[in-house]
Design goal:
heteropentamer, A alpha/beta, B alpha/beta, C mainly alpha, D mainly alpha, E alpha+beta, C: mainly alpha, MetI-like fold, E: seven-stranded mixed beta sheet, 17 helices, 23 strands, binds adenosine-5'-triphosphate, binds magnesium ion, ATP-binding (chain A), ABC_transp_ATP-bind (chain A)
Chain lengths: 338, 347, 305, 298, 530
């Protein structure tokens, strides 16, 4: 099946900044600024990028946890943003989210049973009498025992809590799950357990994931396709292989080179970016990366590059990057300025 | 084993917290050397006692914690025997420290310049003015743009990366012989992390100091350290030079750690990751024998019952595992090669 | 900062409108006809009616309210019903006494509270800590009018130099103690808990790691930060004292604004009450505004958005 | 599957409810805090006395008995008699329930209203928040006791009106605290998780937010009880509140003050009773605060 | 240091031996002499009392504290002696020239402190003002029967009344009849024209002829008067007098004992012993013209039945109340007026305390098991005490009375509207004439606000009261009042409690002080001797 399950178009999320004498809106945090992408049913699309680039905001906007400023989010052919509150509430059954913090993401005062039954009750997915059986099944699915149903969150470890969060998301039989840094807070050994579980669930339940992470290692492991964001914009999107083996955007390239590899023999030539990520309040003109880009020219400063695919540079189908100089950089015609 | 030109030698360090629920053995048998001018990385999962180890060296453990055993030899003297006043002379002057959270480690009500200058005032008895002048030099050294203006900035006016640079400036102000960096980049983005790590490495060469780098990121270790100590549940389980450790890890825990790491430079082709089953024991319910035994695919009766000691494997590597001893009662194993198989048959 | 200040000042306007409206409505809810009171016990209906007319009490409430606010903005709070004196004069004669009382009491409570709080925090768990905190709680638990009476009985009557009543000179001692006690207790407790919280912050560890002496760590690095929330409490205290001095003013026969309000509620002298409460509220709001500004000034972390 | 195997100790763990676990923890900490325990025992003592005490005393002693007026404390009259010859001890015992009643109900009413406003304000934010909080500012800008005075003047004298007056000025205190807590809890991911599941606002507010902000509310309530009692006695001192011959303690004190020179016991015993009750609540509330505050651990 | 007025510029002004210094300090002493300094001065008499004055304008208030101050500034035509005999003051003689005309001869040697001469015109200006509806004086009722004031010659004036009104001379002795400078009155009218309130000017410029003149008024704190050195008669004994507000009993006593006040009023009966027992101070007592009473609402059940009222009256032990509330310092009342009031008759017997009889009466009235009712009081300590004791005594005859304390404003309003069952209040027969005491309290014209809060209406009483106030013959008047008193005792529209005494705390060094039965301090002869 290769139908589009989720289609995001021209999504913008601006957070107003109030100020001035009258406390009126004086500016916006342009957290997500006009991004479009699609996710096919059953695949995993990852969003990577540095802190504050708008990854979570994208996820939250899709779920309407924050109302997006503009754009459209089509899910299974329906425009989510056009739904009223009640309709949206029903719709939520199909879209779930798993959060980062295993401690903050479940109510410490409810037992696992209460957590799961409440979720099912809200969406009325199973009749009351079948609930128990369903909960047992869920617990086993996420690798916990049915005997742990009556425990409270504090009796579980971080990894186990994360499984409870997953069980809660699964309890309403969603089609799409947004994983916002779902394994970032876990120790490596536990992280591996949860990653394996997510993959297994996807295979078994034909789930679709929107996987948000800043860890490219994790992303490479779990995704089918990867989307790189910088300052609220998509800079590159490609299937996993193309992106890691053949990154085209200078940002993607430096990002990959900046990540330390756990292999001392592989000492490579690192590109160290200068400066910090600029503020999303007044993002740089033209290409938002130009202030830090080792290749930047005047054109980059003035003209905003569009996402594009060029065969010249050996880009696979569906691989797009937003850079004016994909070809030049690929051919080595353009040299880094630092 | 004690490395000859090591600047600090920590031996069987023990630090516990005496809480209402009983003694928490946060650090319980930590042994390592930091060779002069080199970088030692300490890796371990959360709660393994890395930070407490570093605070113990600084003698900054607060009640209800207490260092109750072992020794810390710095320049031939035992730090644990020093008075508080003597320690104060060492802190910030001979041993400095950078903390994990650049956001909260700087005092919000003083300017960055004041905070750097204070180190000079404390240790070199300089006047405020002179100290500030030297602070400016430090800011330049750590590569903060327009340092003059930053001198008067308050911490909240700086970005995370800048703050961490300021922290480094404070730590390095008096050119210490040993810099302890407790997860200095965990809170930062990868691109900034790369900047900071490079900065620390550069300054290390320039100043010729030794660095104790604490991290949970094996990638960081591989890229920046000369030696590595792996900690698990309050103990060092393996100590080796960095190449040996990554190429030929000995301890099952080290092996498991490396194998469970998803890597961006290698495609797993859809394979599942190897995992370490179970979870880290809580420090107030530690197992009897080897702390790793409950999670170890090779564990035998012996492992469950008796605690192995950290032994020299050769002249530079040490490991805390029964497999490498004469007492080993299990089948012959090559930990690295047999790990995955043992791991899956176990369950 | 300037923009922030202006914006905050503008935000005070709705609060003050609310306050004026509430005072006004409250005064009109209170049973008792001011015209009747003013005309006297023996006035006949016509006289009362005339009085009502003259006082504008026959106008619809909104008209009366607008007139009240309109005049107030121009600095005219009307005239007392009982004696016809301008309310602003009546308030002017008393406000400084109340302000002085509040200021002295606040100074006293800051002085005692800070010292006690720091001692307590730095010797956490010691006998001194426990004793100071028990004393503080005791101070908080004492009805201050009772404390005032006890002070008169056991201090003023024994020491000729300390007058039992009035205001000015040595007479300020007892009321200031009476009023300052609870504040000192609050500040001591706040300082203590704030110190204890700050002392566990990362930057304190940084200072120690720098080799800074423990005394400097406490008094330079910790106290500066610990004082930030204390400032807020001091501000609130001060604001509260302005209107809360009623009982102390009554006990010590001090002719302050608090007692003035009480007396005038009893006398149904609405213009006096309205004016005084409005002035007290304005003072309170301004003090808190100042506190807010100084808080932001002290606390570098708070963005001046 | 390897994930299902769990460490042995995990299996053995008892089923414990976090509320109970939490309470146990708080209780353990409280138990170690001698002052808080003293406060707690005093509160229990006062509450029990307020129920049982009046049954044990001789009600005749509540009636005026001019021939025995202004007696000093003695075997017959433990705390002496007042200016009408009534036994002060008996009056204090009978007044205890009134004092506690005023404290308790003014806090409960203020709490209910304040918590509701705080929840709504914090959860919905924006205009709702602005309006509610501005209104709270207005209430706060009124000097507390003067507001109470005005309200009682408007409503008339009487214990219940005192309760309303005190409750009104406690509303902004509670509302602010609750709002602050709501804002911090609201940020937690499980609230977003509930929204993502399609839970209604009411469910989120009352089931998921409210239970998690109880600690500051409880602490504030205990401490405000002390304030409420003090305020009520203050109002009684000004002659507002309980109607004679109700033996409300503030009224006893107010009457006693006239005899403080010659017969200090009349003001002393009610005064010290007030101090003790208020102190008890302060000690206990303080202890609970410390016990609930994760920052002040150990 | 003080300004150097020796012309010695640049010289060492700190030098101690400056020739001009002595004179300097003297003047400085005077200019610096604000209120705080004057207090300790022996020539300044300090009187500490509970309440501040309401107004200095004698037409602008009707309360004792105000009158107590006003009486020192403004003199009346006549005054009453300690035993309530009328004596000349600004008037030298007076007589009824016709049934409805009183003629007064005035002193010819008196000047107001602003220099305006005192004469018949001045008297007329004052009476016109107090009766002016625009001024709406609270004391207009004292003179409402005056139809016209006729200036006969410069020092002779006629008061023409609507009907023959015998008590007029005693009304003119009331402090409400204090003479204000006509200049000041004119200025006050001007201020009114300009939009001011009546009294605005006078409250700041109270100009009279008295032995003291106004110095300052710090509202809520104190009023200071200084000696009028141009006084026509014997000048005052002290240079100044400060009336200080000190509401707390305890505080006032401390002030007296520590010497920061010379005279305090009131001393609560329970503190009398203490004050008398303290060295250097004592309690001065004076019988008052006041009555404390419990009013019934005779228009509503059950108090519309005289039997019930009698029963309640008989259920209360006045002596016990006197003892319990006033420490026995008061005189139990028989009727509405005391023995020092004109019109009092010792022939009338009050209802005796007799609980047995009270129960019978109740049963007779149809309440064998008693009834539920309320007692209202304001937050006066004395009245609340009364309420508590009465409540306990009523319980004995089965009447269950709830006490409700009302705030003063509400109390006055609600009792004036007749919403009460029983209420506790007082009345001062300031003029010392039964008319003042009875007409307001019992005449059906005065129901409600005007004084008759019992809503008592009895044609016979009305007729007798009307007749008595018009009758000029004293004996006849006394007879008429005796009849009224008899009816009032029998009908018991109110429960007459007692007539209190004034208890004034006074320091031993204060000489020549006395307090008038009408409550006013007599300060002219006071001296402070050390
Ligand atoms: N509610 C909000 N109001 C104002 N600004 C916001 C809000 N939420 C997010 N932002 C801003 O939007 C930008 C993007 O935030 P977002 O959380 O999406 O980043 P992210 O990519 O998820 O980062 P991280 O890796 O740190 O989670 C940031 O600058 C953030 O400060
Ligand atoms: N104040 C304390 N009281 C009790 N236990 C403590 C205290 N501080 C630390 N511990 C315990 O000591 C152990 C070691 O903590 P430490 O901070 O050294 O871990 P770490 O290796 O630095 O972990 P992380 O990677 O999370 O920083 C932990 O189990 C922790 O629970
Ligand atoms: Mg995020
Ligand atoms: Mg750590």
């Amino acid at each position: 099946m290769t139908t589009q399950l989720l289609k995001v178009q021209n999504l913008k999320q601006y957070f107003p900044i109030k100020g001035g004498v009258l406390g009126r809106k004086i500016n916006d945090v342009k957290a997500v600024d006009d991004i479009s992408f699609e996710i096919k049913a059953g695949e995993t699309l990852s969003i990577v990028g540095e802190s504050g680039c708008g990854k979570s905001t994208t996820g939250r906007a899709i779920l309407r946890l924050d109302e997006p400023t503009s754009g459209s989010v089509e899910f299974d052919g329906k425009d989510l943003l056009a739904l009223n509150k009640g309709q949206m509430r029903k719709m939520r059954k199909d879209l779930q989210i798993i959060f980062q913090d295993p401690y903050a993401s479940i109510n410490p005062r409810q037992t696992v049973r209460q957590i799961l039954s409440e979720a099912m009750e809200i969406q009325k997915v199973v009749p009351k009498d079948k609930m128990d059986a369903r909960m047992k099944e869920l617990m086993e699915t996420v690798g916990l025992g049915a005997h742990q149903l009556d425990r409270f969150p504090h009796e579980f470890s971080g990894g186990q809590r994360q499984r409870i969060g997953i069980a809660r998301a699964l309890s309403v039989d969603p089609k799409l799950i947004i994983c916002d840094e779902s394994v970032s807070a876990l120790d490596v050994s536990i992280q591996a357990q949860v990653l394996n579980l997510l993959k297994k669930l996807q295979r078994e339940l034909n789930l679709t994931y929107l996987f948000i992470s800043h860890d490219l290692g994790v992303v490479r492991h779990i995704s089918d396709r990867v989307l790189v964001m910088y300052l609220g914009k998509i800079v590159e999107i490609a299937d996993k292989k193309s992106l890691f083996d053949n990154p085209k955007h200078p940002y993607t390239q430096t990002l990959l080179s900046a990540i330390p590899v756990p292999d001392p023999t592989k000492k490579k030539d690192q590109v160290i970016l200068k400066g910090d990520v600029p503020s999303p309040i007044d993002p740089p003109s033209g290409c938002r990366f130009h202030t830090r880009c080792p290749f930047a020219t005047d054109k980059c400063k003035n003209e905003e590059p569009l996402l594009r695919n060029t065969e010249v540079a050996g880009m696979a189908e569906g691989h797009m990057a937003a850079c004016h100089y994909i070809e030049e950089i690929a051919s080595g015609e353009m040299k880094r300025q630092y | 084993m004690e490395i000859k030109d090591s600047i600090i030698h920590v031996d069987e360090l023990q630090t516990s917290f005496f809480t209402e629920r009983g003694e928490v053995k946060a650090v319980d048998g930590v042994t390592f050397d930091v060779p002069a001018g080199k970088t030692l990385g300490i890796v371990g999962e959360s709660g393994s006692g890395k930070s407490i180890t570093s605070l113990s060296i600084m003698r900054l453990i607060e009640s209800p914690g207490e260092t109750i055993g072992g020794s810390i030899t710095f320049n031939g003297e035992d730090l644990l025997a020093k008075s508080e006043a003597q320690m104060r002379k060492i802190r910030g002057k001979e041993i400095s420290m950078i903390f994990q959270e650049p956001m909260t480690s700087l005092n919000p009500v003083f300017t960055v310049g004041d905070q750097i200058a204070e180190a000079y005032q404390v240790h070199e008895g300089l006047s405020k003015k002179e100290a500030l002048k030297k602070a400016l030099g430090m800011l330049e050294l750590v590569g903060i743009p327009s340092p003059k203006a930053r001198l008067k900035a308050y911490p909240h006016e700086l970005s995370g990366g800048m703050r961490q640079r300021a922290m480094i400036a404070i730590a390095l102000a008096c050119r210490p012989q040993l810099l302890i960096a407790d997860e200095p980049t965990t809170a930062l983005d990868v691109t900034i992390q790369a900047q900071i790590l490079r900065l620390i490495n550069g300054l290390q060469e320039e100043l010729g100091m030794a660095v104790l780098l604490i991290t949970h990121d094996l990638g960081v270790v591989a890229e920046t350290c000369d030696y590595v100590a792996v900690m698990y549940a309050g103990k060092v389980v393996e100590y080796a030079d960095v190449n040996t450790l990554f190429a030929d890890p000995k301890h099952p825990y080290t092996v498991g750690l490396l194998k469970s790491l998803p890597r961006h430079d290698i495609d797993m082709e859809g394979e599942d990751l190897d995992v370490i089953k179970g979870m880290v024991p809580s420090p107030n319910e530690l197992p009897e024998g080897c702390r790793f035994a409950p999670r170890c695919p090779f564990a035998t009766e012996l492992c469950h019952n008796e605690l192995p000691s950290l032994r020299d494997l050769n002249d530079k590597d040490q490991v805390r595992c029964w497999i490498y001893t004469d007492q080993w009662d299990g089948p012959e194993v090559n930990v690295q090669n047999d790990y995955s198989a043992a791991q899956s048959t176990e369950s | 900062m300037l923009i922030y200040t202006i914006r905050r000042l503008l935000q005070l306007i709705p609060t003050l409108i609310g306050v004026s409206l509430m005072v006004f409505l409250l005064m009109h809810l209170i049973p008792g006809d001011p015209a009747q009171i003013m005309a006297g016990e023996r006035a006949d209906e016509a006289q009362v009616e005339q009085m009502r007319e003259r006082l504008g009490l026959n106008d619809p409430l909104p008209v009366q309210y607008l007139r009240f606010v309109g005049d107030a903005v121009q600095g005219d709070l009307g005239n007392s019903i009982r004696n016809g004196r301008a309310v602003t004069d009546e308030i002017g004669a008393r406000i400084w006494i109340t302000v002085e009382l509040a200021v002295y009491s606040t100074i006293l409570s800051i002085f005692i509270g800070l010292i006690a709080g720091i001692i307590s925090a730095t010797r956490r768990g010691s006998f001194a800590d426990m004793a100071l905190m028990v004393i503080a709680l005791f101070g908080l638990s004492m009805p201050n009018f009772w404390l005032g009476l006890m002070l008169i009985q056991y201090v003023a009557l024994r020491f000729e130099a300390i007058p039992p009543s009035g205001w000015g000179g040595a007479a300020v001692i007892l009321p200031v103690i009476t009023l300052g006690t609870a504040g000192a207790a609050v500040i001591a407790r706040m300082t203590r808990s704030s110190m204890l919280e700050v002392i566990h912050q990362d930057y304190i560890r940084t200072a120690r790691a720098k080799g800074v002496k423990e005394r400097l760590v406490i008094y330079k690095h910790a106290l500066r930060n610990a004082l930030i929330p204390v400032v807020t409490v001091v501000g609130l205290q001060f604001g509260g004292l302005l209107g809360g001095a009623v009982l102390t003013e009554t006990v010590f026969a001090i002719n302050g604004l608090g007692r003035f309000v009480v007396d005038n509620i009893a006398a149904r002298d609405f213009p006096n009450v309205q004016g005084a409460v409005l002035v007290l509220a304005v003072l309170f709001v301004l003090v808190n505004f100042a506190v807010d500004l100084s808080y932001r000034f002290l606390n570098k972390r708070v963005e001046l958005d | 599957m390897e994930e299902t195997t769990l460490p042995a100790q995990q299996e053995q763990q008892k089923r414990v409810n976090p509320q109970i676990e939490n309470l146990k923890m708080v209780w353990r900490k409280l138990k170690k805090n001698k002052l808080a325990m003293a406060g707690g025992f005093l509160i229990i003592f006062f509450v029990l006395t307020s129920f049982i005490g009046p049954l044990l005393t001789n009600d005749e002693l509540l009636n005026p008995n001019v021939s025995d007026r202004l007696q000093a404390p003695s075997g017959e009259y433990w705390f002496g008699t007042d200016h009408h010859g009534r036994d002060i001890f008996t009056r204090i015992i009978h007044g205890m329930s009134i004092t506690l009643y005023i404290g308790f109900f003014s806090v409960v009413i203020g709490l209910i209203v304040g918590v509701f406003l705080g929840l709504v304000s914090g959860y919905y934010g924006r205009l709702t928040d602005t309006i509610i909080m501005r209104f709270m500012d207005v209430l706060l800008a009124f000097p507390g006791i003067l507001l109470a005075l005005g309200i009682i003047a408007a409503l008339g004298n009487g214990i219940n009106n005192v309760i309303i007056a005190i409750a009104i000025f406690s509303v902004p205190v509670f509302a602010r605290i609750v709002r602050g807590s709501v804002l911090s809890v609201r940020k937690l991911e499980y609230i977003d998780a509930m929204r993502a599941l399609g839970a209604s606002d009411a469910r989120i507010i009352f089931k998921h937010i409210l239970p998690n902000i109880m600690s500051p509310i409880i602490v504030q309530a205990t401490l405000f009880l002390a304030t409420a009692i003090l305020t009520a006695t203050g109002l009684s001192f000004l002659g507002l509140g309980a109607q004679p011959p109700t033996p409300e303690w503030g009224a006893l004190l107010a009457a006693g003050r006239n005899y403080i020179f010659e017969y200090p016991h009349i003001a002393f015993f009610p005064g010290i009773s007030i101090v003790l009750v208020v102190l008890a609540f302060n000690l206990f509330g303080d202890g609970v605060r410390d016990a609930l505050d994760p920052k002040l651990k150990s | 240091s003080e300004p150097n007025n020796t012309g010695d510029t640049g010289a060492d002004t700190n030098a101690p031996d400056n020739g001009a210094e002595n004179t300097d300090t003297e003047t400085d002493g005077e200019t610096n002499g604000d209120a705080a300094d004057v207090e300790v001065d022996d020539s300044n008499l300090v009187i500490a009392t509970t309440s501040d004055i309401v107004a200095l304008d004698p037409h602008g208030s009707n309360d004792v504290p105000s009158s107590a101050v006003q009486t020192n500034i403004f003199e009346t035509l006549l005054m009453q002696s300690e035993d309530m005999e009328l004596e000349p003051l600004l008037a030298t003689s007076w007589e009824a020239t016709e049934d409805n005309v009183w003629r007064f001869e005035l002193r010819d040697d008196v000047e107001f402190t602003d220099g305006t001469p005192f004469n018949a015109e001045a008297v007329k200006a004052n009476l016109d003002r107090v009766l002016d509806p625009d001024v709406a004086s609270q004391r207009a009722f004292l003179y409402e029967m005056v139809e016209e004031v006729v200036v006969v010659d410069e020092f002779t004036v006629d008061f023409v009344t609507e009907y023959p009104f015998a008590p007029l001379p005693s009304h003119l002795a009331h402090s409400g009849g204090g003479m204000i400078s006509p200049e000041a009155i004119a200025s006050d009218y001007e201020a009114m024209e300009a939009g001011g309130q009546p009294g605005d000017y006078l409250n700041e410029n109270p100009i009279g002829t008295g032995f003291f003149q106004f110095e300052s008024w710090n509202p809520g704190a104190e009023v200071v008067l200084t000696r009028n050195d141009n006084y026509w008669g014997e000048p005052a004994g002290v240079e100044s007098v400060t009336f200080r507000v000190s509401p707390e009993d305890l505080t006032r006593i401390s002030e007296l004992e520590t010497g920061s006040a010379h005279i305090i009023y009131p001393v609560s009966p329970s503190d009398q012993e203490r004050v008398d027992g303290t060295e250097g101070v004592s309690v001065y007592t004076q019988e008052s013209l006041s009555l404390s009473y419990i009013g019934f609402n005779v228009e509503a059940e059950p108090f519309d039945d005289p039997l019930v009222r009698q029963a309640v009256t008989m259920a209360i032990d006045n002596d016990m109340l006197n003892e319990g509330v006033m420490q026995g310092t008061a005189t139990p009342a028989v009727g509405p007026i005391g023995s020092n009031v004109f019109g009092f008759s010792d022939e009338v017997e009050g209802l005796e305390f007799d609980q047995e009889r009270a129960r019978e009466l109740l049963a007779e009235a149809g309440y064998p098991d008693g009834f539920d009712t309320t007692i209202w009081t304001n937050d006066s300590r004395e009245r609340m005490d009364v309420a508590e004791l009465v409540q306990a005594q009523l319980a004995e005859i089965g009447v269950n009375a709830e006490i409700e304390v009302l705030e003063w404003g509400a109390y006055l309003e609600n009792t004036a509207d007749g919403q009460h069952d029983m209420f506790i209040l007082g009345w001062v027969t300031v003029t010392g004439d039964a008319d003042y005491g009875m007409y307001a309290l019992f005449h059906s014209d005065n129901q409600g606000e005007a004084g008759n809060r019992s809503f008592y209406a009895n044609d016979e009483v009305d007729a007798l009261l009307d007749q008595a106030r018009q009758e000029s013959d004293e004996a006849t008047r006394e007879d008429l009042y005796e009849q009224v008193m008899e009816i009032l005792v029998e009908e018991a529209p109110m429960l007459y409690l007692y007539h209190t005494q004034y208890l004034v705390g006074i320091r031993d060094e204060v000489q020549g002080f006395w307090k008038h039965p009408n409550g006013l301090y007599q300060l002219q002869d006071v001296t402070i001797e050390n």
